[in-house]
Structures are given as C-alpha cells and as structure tokens.
Specification:
Blueprint: H1 3-20, H2 23-27, E1 37-42, E2 60-65, H3 74-83, E3 88-94, H4 98-110, H5 119-125, H6 134-140, H7 144-150, H8 160-188, E4 193-200, E5 211-217, H9 223-234, H10 245-257
Parallel strand pairs: 1-2, 1-3, 3-4
Antiparallel strand pairs: 4-5
Helix pairs in contact: 7-8, 9-10
The chain binds zinc ion (ZN).
C-alpha cells in the first residue's frame, strides 16, 4: 500500500474507532490502567493482541520486540510486574519467526561444527542477510544462545515448520530462564506466574491454525509436569464447578494445547 492510502486510513479508521466506541469505555481507564497480563511477544505483524480472543484494552500490558526478548525491555517489563503488579507474565513466541531464522542462519554460518542436519537449513542458507544493518543484527544476535541449544535436536523433527517452531520454543524457554533469574522470588511467593507459549499459524503443533500452545510454566518444560501445573492453576478458580461441561472443555483444551514439540 502506498503512503497516500496509508495516511488516509490512519485518519479515517481512527475516526471510525472513535465513533464506534462508547465514551464510557474511555472514562473507565482515563486516569489509571489495570492490566492483568504482561505480554512479551515478537514485533512480527502476524502476531497481534487479538489472538488472545479478548478485548485487550486495559487488560494486556504489551511489550514487543524482535524475537520476544526479555533483556532488551526490562524497564517496561518491571514496570508492569512490579508497579502494576500483573499476576501473569506471558512470553509468547511464534512460528516462522524472522528473528529466530536470522539467529539460526548466524549459527549455521559461524560454526564449522554444525553440519546440515535440518530440513530448514537449505532454505535459510539461501537467504541473504548481508544488507541488514548493525543495529538490527545486534538486537537479534543474542538469540543465537538459545538457538545453539536447539539445533542438535532438529534432525528428528521431520518438517521445516516443526524445526522453526521448535527453535522458537527453545527461545521462549531461554527467555523464561532469564525472567526467573530476575523475578523468580515473585514466582516463589505465588505473586507471579510466568507462562511461555507459541502462537502457531502454520500447523507445526496441530491442524488447528491460530492456536497458542502453552510450552512452559514457571520454567517447567516436561509435558506431564506442564499439564499437571495447568490443571492446578485452573483449580485455583474459586467455586469452579468441576462437574460442568465448561470444566470438561477446559481439561480437554489443556490436553491439546499444553504441549511441546
Ligand atoms: Zn518473530
């Protein structure tokens, strides 16, 4: 889209938003915010707050950068966790992440020890990143630390989509490992739960496109431990009727969505 139409959209669409939003909605948060999730996710345009399926106004403190990294936005994260006291921090990676691909390419080209074990490597090696600026590189290169951990496990995954999703998953684990170093005390006191997930829009985890898979809870990464924790978290809902159909649906969703590659 060219600049004239983009600028016209900016004016027209915001005005449509103004006209379609009840003024009381703005008044409800005119002088303070009350988010309950700190969401650290990738800046990728395919990943947006509405994938959570809720109206995210005043609910989600949204922090975004290339590769959903914790270290480069610690100030904003700490404001949300320590000042606004959100009880949940969600670190959300996604499939086909450009930052993960860049870091993987860097790992392959910089290490002589890495042989071509993975299906995704051929296509990655054909990508030319030489024109990328130093600033872009310096923001994404820290991701080579988790990617190096993930590379040895790629050969048995069987598809490009799965390989890249797995590397995003390992990156989320790494970001949560860092978060626990900084905020593990709050987790121990039950004041904060750190959840890791992958937004899957390519079908790497299941045939259901658009799912958020839960791949890490407070550093726990084995599927059984994850599912047990997920069920324990659900049981904290006061007076939740465990004989209801809704509860059965939630338990089924835990089985399907709290899982890893
Ligand atoms: Zn990304």
């Amino acid at each position: 889209m060219e600049i004239g139409n983009i600028f016209r959209h900016l004016l027209v669409h915001n005005e449509a938003f103004v006209k379609s939003t009840d003024a009381t909605k703005f008044l409800a948060y005119a002088t303070r915010q009350n988010p309950y999730i700190t969401l650290v996710t990738c800046a990728d345009s395919r990943v947006q707050g509405n994938i959570l399926g809720i109206d995210i106004f005043n609910k989600v403190f949204l922090i975004r950068n290339a590769g959903n990294q914790v270290a480069i936005n610690r100030g904003s994260i700490e404001y949300s966790i320590l000042v606004l006291k959100t009880p949940v921090m969600l670190v959300l990676g996604h499939t086909d992440c450009g930052a993960v691909k860049f870091a993987t390419h860097a790992c392959i080209t910089q290490s002589k020890e890495i042989v071509n074990l993975a299906k995704s490597f051929d296509r990655l090696m054909q990508t030319d990143y030489s024109s990328i600026s130093r600033e872009v590189k310096s923001e994404m290169l820290p991701l080579t630390i988790p990617i190096e951990r993930g590379i040895p496990y790629l050969s048995k995954l069987g598809s490009e989509n799965k390989e890249l999703a797995y590397l995003s998953q390992i990156n989320v684990d790494y970001q949560i490992e860092k978060s626990l170093k900084y905020y593990g005390g709050l987790v121990k006191e039950n004041k904060l739960t750190i959840i890791g997930g992958i937004y899957d829009f390519v079908g790497a985890y299941s045939k259901e496109l658009g799912r958020i898979l839960i791949t890490n809870i407070n550093g726990i990464t084995d599927t059984n431990g994850l599912q047990e924790n997920a069920k324990a978290i659900i049981k904290r809902i006061p007076n939740y009727d465990e004989s209801s159909e809704e509860y059965k649906t939630v338990c089924k969703l835990i089985e399907e969505k709290v899982t890893r590659i």
